[in-house]
Amino acid sequence: MLRRAGNIYKSVVTIWLALSVGSAILAVVSWEQFMAREQQGRQLSEIRRELNQITASLLELDTGERGYVITGDTNFLAPFNNALTNLPPEFASLILLVHDRPALLDGVTKLQAEAEAAISWHQEVVTTRGLSQNKAIAMVATDKLRNLMGQMQNQLGLLDKISTARQDAIGRGIRNHVVRAHLASIVAGAFALGAGLLAVWMANLAFRHEQKERELMEAKLRAEHNSEQKTALLANMSHEIRTPMNAILGFSELLQVELAEGRHKRYAQSIRTSASSLVQLINDILDMSKIESGALELRREPADPREMCDFTRAVFAEPAAKKNLKLDCHVAADVPRALLLDRIRLRQVLVNLIGNAIKFTDQGGVDVRVSAENDPEGNHATLTVEVLDTGVGIPADKLQDIFKPFVQAGAHLDKEKQGTGLGLAIVKRLTEAMGGTVTVTSAIAQGSAFRLRFPNIPISVRLPVSDRASANGDVDFDALQPATLLVVDDNKTNCDLMAGIFAGSGHRTIFALSGDQAVSRARETPPDVVLLDVRMPGMDGFETLAQIRKIPGLERVPGIAVTASTLPGAVKLLKERFSGYVQKPFTRRQLFDELSEFLPRRAANGAAASRANGAVAPAAFAPAPAELISELRRLVADPWPTICDCVAIKETRAFAQSLRQLGERWHSPALSNYADALLHDAETYAVTDLEKHLGEFAALVEQLAGPHS
Question: Fewer Cβ atoms within 10 Å of its own Cβ: the N or the C terminal residue of the chain?
């Protein structure tokens, strides 16, 4: 009996030990398999990241080449050259990652071959563009690049599909291993609690880790999807609202000018004010959406705080005067003339703060103070901007809440109903995005003080370009030289608005309701400027302008986009593809300011124009100084040949300005007159005259040199 019991005990112990060891081995093996599959998953994620980087580089290559072909601006070659530099190491890194995966390696090898063919084609197009824009455009218009890009897109899609499928399989394998390890640990635990509990603990730990990672990944994907859906929805809603708002604001502006009775003028002004408030609400919501989704881009450039003070005075002088408020802006003497910051976003912050201050102030005034603390080396400065008012004040318990979206202070409810509750939230988000902080102090019935502080801002050695605020008053389109304007918009109401804006002026307006109709009208009557909507059914604004510029004589006709689009990246694309743009809803002043970039103003007398239109006089000139001739011959060698080939307006204008400076410095009327002719041709987009006058430069230099040079 005892012997049998001993045998049973030994058997139980043996089974216990065997199960314990088996459980431990199973746990270790399962954990190792889990780690191996997790490593494979990370490797596949790295492969997908490299594919995405290659896709981005190919897109930069294509975008840079097209931008350079269209504009001739060598700045577009920066992303092009970056892509050329980055693609070889990116492919090398990707091949190293997939060397032990035959299916992926074969796909990557094919993709690399297709990419090298595309790179070679892009380089050929860029080289051709340096010689002839028309040839380069013709090369771009062929199907070769489209086929190459299509093949690469197909190959990228196939590689992404393979890597995604393998990643999903690895995920399923990890879950299956975890479940098996969990069940085995439970069975083993019934016979061997110690080993079983350890196995269960390890399995549960791995399972929970994987489950948590999966839940976090699913939550992240849902959040990203929701954010994209929200941004797209808001952008589409904005576009659909801005289009009718453009007609409401535009026609009410025209009515206000034409109405004679004061009561009717006030009605029209009320329509404009209410519509402007709605547009501001849309802008605030879109800005908050961009900030929350991380899509807000900062553009740092040299900016002078003094100009920003001039801007705020111009914008808020009338609202302050209506309430008999004193509006001051003081800039300390030691504030640098040029600080590298986002001038537009800082203006937006100041507009929100000053607009709030005027709205909540009934007597006294608003004072803006700008100061700076420069570092000892003089390379950086800490900028401080204070906006002080004598308004209603903010309750102490609301001072922190006012920076939250849709929260208002509650001290002046009738005024708060006029706003969206987003202004101060946008102020805080934009200030922090620019690396600054915003604080506020306030006392009820005494006023508020908002303080912006931007530390460590680089001081620029390059002075900012002057950009004064445009007045909102009446404009006279006859101040610009008469021109033929082609207006393209599928919305007839917008066409009627444009007809009303230019009615009675010296400009001729031609209308088209579709892209095909616009191309036909441009052939019949060549326009001086094309004003066109972007989102049109059938042929959109991009394609319409491209087709118009294929018409002989209209290769460089200015195209101004008139659009309600607010999609992310839209402004950047508009700047790349159009000569200028106006966003709906727009005022007559905004349209005038944009047209003035392409239509010269009427001359006070005809002397300048006649001088500019005349060719270089054939008569001999008095010999110019040797130093001037040496400088001019250097220009004949470079950059004159390149400018003659591309006839780029921007480069020609800079070339002419440098010649005029030389003419004034060396007192050479002939050189000054020649420079004025070039400038006139560039500013009026007289391409034929521009090419003719450019070709006369070398002969002019030899005439100035004299027969004995």
Answer: N
